[in-house]
Write a structure and sequence with these properties.
Strand order of the largest sheet: 3-2-4-1-10-9-11-15
Subcellular location: Cytoplasm
EC number: 2.6.1.16
Pfam family, one: GATase_6
Protein name: Glutamine--fructose-6-phosphate aminotransferase [isomerizing]
Shape: globular
Distance between the termini: 10 Å
Bound molecules: fructose -6-phosphate
Largest sheet: 8 strands, antiparallel
Strand content: 15-25%
Function: Catalyzes the first step in hexosamine metabolism, converting fructose-6P into glucosamine-6P using glutamine as a nitrogen source.
Radius of gyration: 25 Å
Amino acid sequence: MCGIVGITGKNDNAVAVLINGLEKLEYRGYDSAGIFVTDSQGQANLVKVKGRIADLKDKLTPDIKGNTGIGHTRWATHGVPSENNAHPHYSENGRFFLVHNGVIGNFKELKDKYLADVKFVSETDTEVVVQLVEHFSNEGLTTKEAFKKTLSVIDASSSYAFLLMDKNEPGTLYAAKSKSPLLIAVGPDFNGVCSDAMAMLKETHDFIELTDGDVVVLTASSIDIEDKDGNHVDRKPFHVDQDASASEKGAYEHYMLKEIDEQPAVMRKIASAYLNEDGSINIDDALLKAMNQSDRLYIVAAGTSYHAGLVGHELFEKLAHIPTEVHVASEFGYNMPLLSEKPFFIFLSQSGETADSRQVLVQVNELNYPSLTITNVANSTLSREADYTLLLHAGPEIAVASTKAYTAQIAVEAVLAKRLGEIKGIKEAAQFDIKADLTTVANAMQTMVDEKHDIEALAKQNLNTTRNAFYIGRAIDYDTAIEAALKLKEVSYVQTEGFASGELKHGTIALIEEGTPVIAIITDPKTAAHTRSNVQEVIARGANVIIITSESLAQPGDQIVLPDVNPLLTPLVSIVPAQLLAYYTSKQRGYDVDKPRNLAKSVTVE
Ligand code: F6R
């Protein structure tokens, strides 16, 4: 949450680099933004707005330029979205400027203890930090010493990635990180800092990972990293082999539609990444051994990734015969259940940065339990800190609502579950032809994507004005119903519940009234007839029903018919029309599909 970017270089192009970087980071928060730049003569400019990067651009004038600067795009935690609360924040004497991603747990105590006489202009926790740097520098410390002293009084509950500038030292950037992600971008005649490599891929493909406790001083030609123990360390850059254009929208109006459309290709990419020509599976033996030695898998995740975990539960139990539990990360960390004797943890996370999941991984590491992260982002925090990583190969996901990462997570879980079961000689795994099945899934997804205009019409007829809606299903379709409901509510603001269809009659059916949309997902042969009965019950109470079903279970009048695929993989296909319904409902209502209100993509605060 919140994106930060900084550059120190030799050319006067800092504004362009910062704006381009912030546009790439806007998925992390988009309620306000700002930049601070200095030129080689020490001329400084601060520009901040409430609103988007586009609004920030409108406020820039040609005289605002420089070779060094810091920028920020915000997702509000402390204080409403406003120009005053936008970053960069500055100290009372106007010397220090700071951007921050994270939360300072003890900011009130620090304010009371050190800054009682300081006049604050914002309601943020961040301003306390920049005022502290000034406070300690007034005690005669150098900027670096004052910065380090400030870091030393911030408590362990806090999370931060900071970028600091001192107006008296144009050309120098100070950075520090704890829990929030931060990378150094290494260039031939510049150096930069960013929350995500995507922000600086136009400038460089070489990045250095920072770890918690690092303090960095950067100039255009030098990088000085001090680790948490105060040692000067030399970290080798890694190369990001990704084209900057992979995160462009191309001809699409919205990233969400582009990413929905990309799903068949992602299925093929996963097949080619994990499957050999002969269909055998290519996964690290040490990981497979560690998983097969465990007596219980614990999947920990948040939001859509949690929903992918629910499907994973079916896959690991049915194909690998390993008992599996799925937990919401923000609940698990502070209320850990009694664990089995040999637990193995799986962290599902598109971004690899979700703070709720990370706080669980920190505990799991302290307890010395083995772990795997399944993520879309190589070198992300969860990937670095788990014992093993499997990548999603989905390409950058920019729309805040996750689509292709969800289906990629399920596909990777399926490949992994198949291999685990195969090693154990489990019949269901041996019979599961993942190579052929993923191809069938990709084709079925393509059929759905090709029928998007029918789904657009269905959205218009049924969801255009409704205030609430339900998705219902049983078994694996219930897992899909929960994800489908999240998709619709987060982008269209229609209050939607995903419900076990058999459970409706135990109370929630009271909410059904004339015209309430109820979307039933029916792909599970065992429970299809029961869900059909539940559909009749809601029709009898006036519901406006849409049925999403598999070809072999379809009945006359069903609105969305999915090509048949392996029953264990139906969530990969049945979610596609639900994603499209959400997309078109949001678009038809005139909302910002890719950046729904109140949300951000990478949730790096707990
Ligand atoms: C919803 C959505 C979120 C994320 C959740 C976890 O469309 O994208 O619910 O799934 O914030 O994020 P990751 O997967 O990055 O850990």
